[in-house]
Amino acid sequence: MLEIPLLHALYAVHKHGSLSSAAETLHITTSAVSQRITKLERETGQRMIERLGRGVRLTDAAVILVDYAERILSLVNEAESALDGHRGAIAGQLSIAGFSTAVRGLLPPAIIALKEKHPKLGLKICEDEPNMSIRQLVRGDVDIAVVQDWFNAPLDLPEGLMKASLLDDVADVALPAQNPLAQRHMLELDDLADENWITWTPGSVCHSWLMQTFRACGVEPHVVHTAADYSTQLALVSSGLGICLIPRLGREPVPPGVRVIGVRPLLSRHVYAVWRRESARRPAIRAATDALVETALPTELSYNTKTSFPADAPVSSS
Fold first, then answer.
1. Is 71 exposed, middle or buried (0-12, 13-18, 19+ CB in 10 A)?
2. Which end of the chain is more exposed for a tag (fewer CB within 10 A), N or C?
3. Structure-model confidence comparison of residues 197 and 317, the more confident one
4. What is the pTM of this model?
5. Would you say the C-alpha torsion 205, 209, 211, 215 has a positive or negative sign?
6. Alpha carbon 36 to chain centroid distance?
């Protein structure tokens, strides 16, 4: 008889490509993963993995079994969610993935509130780009994903997911203090057409959105530098190397020599929580999404009171 832990080990190796990575995901040792695969091979009478350099490759028999394992594990997760819902327990483990500024500005207060109400609930935060978080959610690697998309570039969500709106996050432009535009109190999008841009790396949601927004206006943005976090982008702006867009959620104090100014038309992204439909009855999912909504509401209300900023005033999300 095929045991769930054995199937879980095989599926983890399939997803992550090595025994060590599978062990890290399952929170067991590499030796334990190897033992489970060996036991699965004995029970099926077929080889499951072959060594491939430092990694491993699944055999044809394992590929067949992985397809069934994915469905079986999904059903197990659904059954556990149904039992949790019947029991009404807010306990166990819950993992939440989120993009960087959500992890910094939204998740910590929501997690603190959640743990105060439900001390038996274990929580884990994972930082990742929205597209990766959605893939992790669909695979069952995380329970909730906090994602974002821009007003003119909606994120494509797969079937079987549910979502709750959290907030609309406004973005402002950050410029070197010596830039002539830095003396303005509000900027038009057209004012920025000839500027040198510092943005996220190609392939990221924010980089794609910036390119799409300006191209829709008939302008090709001149991207001179890319960086994978806003702190680095602001440091480059402070050095006079270009301008960047900075959302207000999770914003850190800007460095000296940088001015933050509002833009018309308003540039905003929508932030929301997403979870699997089969997990909707799980009380921990409902409690976590409620905590996220309650935390986001005062954050968004505070954003609505800030439509522009003096040219000489740093801005933080607090």
1. exposed
2. N
3. 197
4. 0.69
5. positive
6. 31
